[in-house]
Amino acid sequence: MRPGARLGIDVGRARVGVSRCDPSAILAVPVETVARDADGDEDIRRILELAAEHEVIELVVGNPLSLSGTSTASTDDAVAFAERLAAAGAAVRLVDERMSTVSAQQALRSAGKSSRKQRPIIDQAAAVIILQHAIDAERASGTAPGRTISADEGL
């Protein structure tokens, strides 16, 4: 298991959920929800600020494939966002996140949160699930999860 804190990123059309884990990569916790910036890079800048603040070794971005494993419009959006983070200088890994939002909704519902009360935190909860799954998979396999996104991949 590689030591070092990481940020988990759940990319949505309107918001980006952010989570982090401790430097021992044991437990993922919610951090914040960042508004998407359709006309600029404010969302990227904020995530890079969080990465610096938490001294992370990488960003783990969820890749929302369809249940059959094929790409969707959401997949393309998440990959493009990951490429923007990499182009801005971040170390980025793209990991399978199928069903993370559904799992987060179920967990929040089980905790007694109504659908209306879930909205502000659902993205963070999904980011926690993405990151926790990634660090658990790395611990079990001994290899880094997903794939690395390079700065020039989308060019």
Number of strands: 6
Rg for CA atoms: 14 Å
Number of discrete helical segments: 5
Secondary structure category: alpha/beta
Strand content: 15-25%
**Order of strands across the widest beta sheet?**
3-2-1-4-5-6
Query: What is the helical fraction, as a range of percent?
Result: 40-55%
Q: Which regions have little confidence, pLDDT < 50, spanning 5+ residues?
A: none
Q: What is the mean pLDDT? A: 87
Task: Provide a brief overview of the structure.
This protein is α/β, with parallel strands linked by helices.
Can you describe what's shown?
The chain is an alpha/beta fold. It contains 5 helices and 6 strands, in the order E-E-E-H-E-H-E-H-H-H-E. Strands 3-2-1-4-5-6 form a 6-stranded mixed beta sheet, with helices on both faces. The longest helix is centred in the C-terminal third of the chain and has 20 residues.
